[in-house]
Design brief:
Layout lengths: L5 E2 H8 L3 E5 L6 E2 L13 E3 L7 H7 L4 E4 L10 E5 L2 H13 L6 E2 L4 E2 L4 E2 L4 E2 L4 E2 L3 E2 L4 E2 L4 E2 L3 E3 L4 E2 L4 E4 L4 E3 L5 E3 L6 E3 L4 E2 L4 E3 L6 E3 L4 E2 L4 E2 L4 E2 L4 E2 L4 E2 L4 E2 L4 E2 L4 E2 L4 E2 L4 E2 L4 E2 L8 E3 L4 E2 L3
Parallel strand pairs: 4-5, 5-6, 7-10, 8-11, 9-12, 10-13, 11-14, 12-15, 13-16, 14-17, 15-20, 16-21, 17-22, 20-23, 21-24, 22-25, 23-26, 24-27, 25-28, 26-29, 27-30, 28-31, 29-32, 30-33, 31-34, 33-35
Antiparallel strand pairs: 1-3, 2-6, 18-19, 35-36
């Protein structure tokens, strides 16, 4: 547990317009930790989910003196309630700002960065990472052992976890006159938007003749494979161990659950959900949930 004393004044200044009201004592109030429900103590910043029917009772029973709540929770003796628009969102923001250790800025001495790489401001490149003729946006974090090939363009504030491989050759082949396979040229780019996260040991191939594209705020978990020419939209979640063969289009806000596979040249519509372990061989319409092998719509 990270212990760091943060005053109520600091919390309120940071949250700004997210705060609706402060109910209870204000003078001398502080927190010094974040914790799960089983390890909450008097100086933890706790929170209550607004949709809970018994949220007043939950707040009253909390060991914490300071809680993030919605405006429907009433004053509780001995507690300070910070009424906000979204308690969980505010907790996450406070945690990231005050408690999560910040990466240093700069290039680790063991990293190898091509002289033609274009690095933005406040970039961190960790131990034994290798960066080719790539463009890395402001505030990006590239952890240890990452390989970034040439022709990768990364937006602002991307986070690339250890062991990821970005922009390598795709798995594309043609046959010669004798039926033997030879490589189809993989000369496209990998284009990544802002605030993209790529998990540990995930591989994302560059395009063949066109580009592989990852949209803003998309989050990709560990041990995923994303082949050449995939086009992934904004705010897409690709969870652990997903395999995307080449040429898929995944629209904004889709969710791909663990161990799912897309055969290639599949269209997944906006807001669609692909279930755990699904094998997708047909297009998935927007806002539908598909599960199974072969995947079909889940009827509710």
């Amino acid at each position: 547990m990270i212990i760091k004393k943060i005053t109520l004044e600091e919390i309120l200044a940071f949250l700004g317009d997210e705060v609706i009201a402060v109910k209870g004592e204000k003078a001398g109030v502080y927190i010094d930790n974040l914790a799960d429900v089983e390890h909450t103590n008097s100086t933890t910043l706790d929170w209550v989910l607004p949709k809970k029917a018994e949220k007043q009772h939950i707040a009253e029973q909390s060991k914490a003196r300071v809680l993030l709540v919605d405006d429907e929770v009433d004053v509780i003796a001995g507690k300070t309630l910070i009424a906000v628009k979204s308690p969980k969102r505010s907790l996450a923001a406070i945690g990231n700002h005050f408690f999560v250790p910040k990466h240093p800025i700069g290039i680790h001495p063991t990293a190898i960065v091509d002289s033609e790489a274009q690095l933005g401001r406040d970039v961190y490149i960790g131990p034994y990472a290798v960066v080719g003729k790539a463009k890395i946006g402001d505030g990006c974090v590239i952890e240890s052992g990452v390989r970034v090939y040439d022709n990768v363009e990364m937006g602002r504030c991307c986070n690339i976890k250890s062991g990821a491989v970005l922009g390598g050759e795709g798995f594309g082949f043609e046959r010669d006159e004798n039926g033997n396979r030879f490589r189809f040229p993989q000369i496209g780019r990998l284009l990544m938007g802002d605030y993209v996260e790529v998990g540990g040991n995930t591989c994302i191939d560059r395009g063949a003749l066109s580009d592989t594209v990852i949209g803003d705020y998309t989050k990709i978990n560990n041990l995923c494979h994303i082949a050449h020419n995939n086009r992934i939209g904004k705010n897409v979640v690709v969870t652990a161990c997903v395999n995307l063969s080449g040429g898929n289009v995944i629209e904004d806000d889709a969710w791909i659950a663990p161990n799912a596979s897309l055969k290639g040249y599949i269209h997944v519509g906006e807001g669609a959900v692909v279930g755990m372990g699904a094998v997708v061989t047909k297009d998935v319409p927007a806002h539908e949930t598909w599960v199974g092998n072969p995947a079909r719509e889940l009827k509710r």
